[in-house]
Amino acid sequence: xxxxxxxxxxxxxxxxxIVLFIVAAVTLHNRAFRSSWPERAVRDVTSIVSExxxxxxxxxxxxxxxxxxxxxxxQENSALQALVAKDAALQISLDQTQQENAQLRxxxxxxxxxxxxxxxxxxxxxxxxxxxxxxITISVGKNAGVARDxxxxxxxxxxxxxxxxxxxxxxxxxxxxxxxxADGVSAxxxxxxxxxxxxxxxxxxxxxxxxxxxxxxxSTNARVGDLVVTSGLSNMYPRGILIGKVQSFQLDGTxxxxxxxxxxxxxxxxxxxxxxxxxxxxxxxx
Length: 286
Description:
36% of the residues lie in helices and 27% in strands. It is an alpha+beta fold. Strand 4 and strand 5 form a beta hairpin.
């Protein structure tokens, strides 16, 4: 066996195999180019039909693929919008909570700084848009010791209004900004000089401001920027409760009195918590 494939015989055998493969390849190649006309016709028809079928099939597949992509995009967009809405709602809730906490801290600070006063804390539970500048409803009533005509303060001790009616568990507060009320607040402009007295009520022209009327034109000490406080001349409001600050003066046209526009110290558009002040006879609020 070893003698059969040794030396030149092995090389001759390999050379013969190589020649055989070359001849077979050339033969097959020539046959491919010498296909009969039926074979060529079948190939042409098959190519044309394949192209006709492939083009619309590809377009349909592409159409449905794009629809699927649009559906996926819409779903992702809806999910993102839901996340944004949820985040916005959480942010609003957080802002409201922070605002309430700030007001409650101010109330605690005011109560701690004025232990000599009886203050009943309450939450605003009702306020109608139709009577926004006129009244609010609070969460304490007769059971908590609240009575008619008691002063109502904001979290910093600024005057908000007075109690006009009470039930066992709630009360209605007439706001200082109410122009419908005929009652005013006896007030004093303080600046370290001669006292300047007048009556403060709601301003029908500018609802967010107050109007101090019946100021004697002989009073020349008051200036823009002076503070306005309760005078204590009535039995309803103790002396010294902060009302606001003088913004401007104007003549009444009578030649006897003048009036002043007062910027309230309390923010009447953001009243969430209040104090009901239970006054004592002759009590003065510093």
